[in-house]
Amino acid sequence: MHFFDRLADRIATADSVVSVGLDPDPARLPDSVLDADLPRWQFNRRIIDATHEHAACYKPNAAFYEDPDGWRALEETIAYAHGKDVPVLLDAKRGDIGNTARQYAQILDEDAGPAADAITVNPFLGRDSLEPFLQRADRGVFVLGRTSNPGGEDLQDLELASGEKLYERVVHLADLWNQNGNVGLVVGATNPDELEEIRELVPDIPFLVPGVGAQGGDAEAAVEHGLADGVGLVNSSRGIIFAGEDADTRRDDSGDAFFKAAGQSAKQLKQRLNQFR
Asked: Is Oxidoreductase included in the keywords of this UniProt record (predicted)?
């Protein structure tokens, strides 16, 4: 079963297009998880318990797991999310020469341990750098298309000889690379006009739209232009997982109030987005 078919089923089950970013910054974890063997895994488990009813997907960012205990925490997180029937999109932004890319792509293989259902990739090195991901037809591959960070325009706005901007060429290439029906695009939510423009360029590719939440992206535009036949994801990370972050909840030994706030934030985002579906 292809990733986007599984995602469509999950969206229907949860009545949600919310992607919950699992970015367990060690400096911001509440006291209630700090004594655990794997604090990041304990944190993620509590977040998943609090939010899974409202989550279409979980999106751990690889940067928060790149040490031995972190990889263990990530494996446990993927397995636990799957136990809740929620797919996992690893935000790793991979993209490298062939033999290195083949190694990176093993995170999508079940025989290497709990496997992510999808991954984000960086297209700067071209198709051959992404081929090990693209050829896994049952896994989702989200290509960085248009990012919302201030420096993104340094390269993405460059005009090519064809008259296209660089990000527009990337969008077209992603469409060409979608031979297995497993390609999505990462498109930031902070510029609604660009979201609409990119949707017009590629009508059938689902988007992962980050930036709705702490970054202040446009929720209505994210839903209107981010979904293709009702399939796509709108992500919030810090706005959900650290929604309960204040002095009192961080020091609460049980952590109940902290994680309850995360669940409420996920529910509120789901309801906010569903107004526009």
From this structure: no
